[in-house]
Amino acid sequence: MHHVPRALPLLAAPLLIAAALLPGAVPAAAASGAAPGAPAAEPVPLTPESAQEFVDTRVAELLEEHGAPGVAVTVVGGGEQLASASHGYSDLAERTPLDHTAQTFPLASVSKSLTAAAVLTLVDSGEIDLDEDVNTYLPGDAQLSTDGITMHHLLTHTAGFEELVDIPPADDTAAHLTLDEVVRTSDPESLHEPGRFPGYSNHGSGLAGFIAQEVSGVPFDEFVEQAVLAPLGMEGSGFVQVHEARETFDLPTFHLADGSVAGDLHVSATPAGAALATTDDMARFMLALLGGGELDGERVLPASVPALMTDRQFEVHPDLTSVGYGTYQWRGGDSPVIGHGGDLVGMHTAYTLIPAIDAGVFVAVNGADTAPEAQANPMKDLRMEVASAFSETFDPQDPPTGEADPAADLGAYAGSYISSRRAGSGPAQLSVLLGTMVVRDAGDGSLSINGGMALDDRWLPAGDGRFVAENGEDELVFLEEDGEVVALATDSNPTQVSERTAFLDNPLVHGVAAAASLLILFTAFVQFSRARDRFTVVARVLGSLTALACYVAVGVLAYGMFVETSKLEEWILGGSLLLTAPLAVAVPLTVATAAVAVSAWVRGRLTAAGRVHLSLVVAAAAVFLLVGAQYGFVWGLS
């Protein structure tokens, strides 16, 4: 309720339905704003005065720069809540001010941290074993077909699950599922064996919450209340669907980039993204984690819970950021930044902790940015920039550096890489196409990397398969197995890696094939004007209708991506037939056109050129349909 142009969450922005088709905000690198290679600025001591200055002045400046509707923020440090503020509007149309003292904010994937804390209380009591196969805790009708998946895997996003998208609109009540229904009716495909790679999973977090419910014998929302919210005094928080919460809570309006109102969604995997909290409550949660489970001089969580949440529980490389239980690192190194982000359509949240200075910040933004940079890359949105600015102000770190090596042969790294967080079926597979990272040897001792979540185009070697973005905002490591490069992992997002693709699995190859097919299909319209006898008319009409169906499919997708950008997300989340019906119609049309083409060859109908052309149209349609089916855009075959 993470991660489209340059990249695509629980819920993400339109094309980071490719970095993260929804749920889970993409971790943002807490990069220095200084010039590449420049030393970090001197830290500002964190005091109640400097914290208030930050939330009053710096956050207001960032809101002005990014053009989002409103932002609420709270800062903790030294065992107390230091400062809070809200700026902008709760409702743009009504010009209602955002008010952190009165309003409650949907947390989206920040909910996963609350879920993990609750689960870990059962681990502390010995009722759940982190390394036990989760099927041990699941009823017969909810058993996973893949063996060896543990709670450790669920809490670190390393179960290997495909991404499941089950977040229908609030008004589509027929599609709303309970947590029990989600778990009992879903058995996600395994993209790789458990523990091999991280792959952000909303279903995994939902399953973890369901197991807590089964083991405790208490409904999930009540169990979290008993185990976490009540002990911490988080009186304004709970797990409630947004469309239901609006009846009793004062929630802000969610906004799209154009200022219009975003519709509410139903998060079926409740533990993954259906929590609400006030800024004061999130301050108490952060203080409990920083305080080792103590708050206001009392123990509110077992000491093991914050330790397990903030420790490095899974890493792909010791030099990169890691994943904790219900958290991930936003910055590694000597002074790591730890937390979680969340996205719903029109609502974005994040909290970060800096244990080295005993500090934390929570941010909630009730709409998308209007700033072009943020629209192109969600890792640059207001929520992420506030979190980054907090680190840069109070605990700046020197950015990583690398140096071009003209003598180095970097060709072994070249190729296309796709995210380990991806859907196994349906149009949500579009995230693979939009999230592809293309690596090339630049020929000057550096790598050129484009697409996906690449925060720069030029990357400089830093030794042992590690590369640093020239702008200092990120670093990555190429992962090898048996001497072969199999994936790349970035410091900015430890919840997934990008896996190297074979030629026939390469999304760019698929894109080229689809584009070439469309060019050939376009000629069907031209040839239609030359039709004369009845057989020729039938052949041309069928060829033209087949081409038209394919072009309608492209037109619908283009409309959702570039005109009404919120529509693509809405259609994918809601399982709209608009995305799959055009190519479903194209299938029988292609078969009928193929039959006519065969008849033309067998009976010598049409001219020789006409028979060849019709055959090319059929072949082009078949290729286009294969590509469409690959990404779930053929109804019945997705």
Automatic annotation (TrEMBL):
Pfam families: Beta-lactamase. InterPro entries: AmpC-like, Beta-lactam-related, Beta-lactam/transpept-like, Beta-lactam_class-A_AS. Its EC number is 3.1.1.103. The keyword Membrane applies. Keywords: Hydrolase, Membrane, Signal, Transmembrane, Transmembrane helix. GO terms for molecular function: hydrolase activity. Residues 55-379 form the Beta-lactamase-related domain. It comes from the Bacteria. The chain crosses the membrane at residues 508-526, 538-559, 571-602, 614-633. It is an enzyme of class 3 (hydrolase). Residues 1-30 form the signal peptide. PANTHER family: BETA-LACTAMASE-RELATED DOMAIN-CONTAINING PROTEIN (PTHR46825:SF9), D-ALANYL-D-ALANINE-CARBOXYPEPTIDASE/ENDOPEPTIDASE AMPH (PTHR46825). This is Serine hydrolase domain-containing protein. It comes from Nocardiopsis codii.
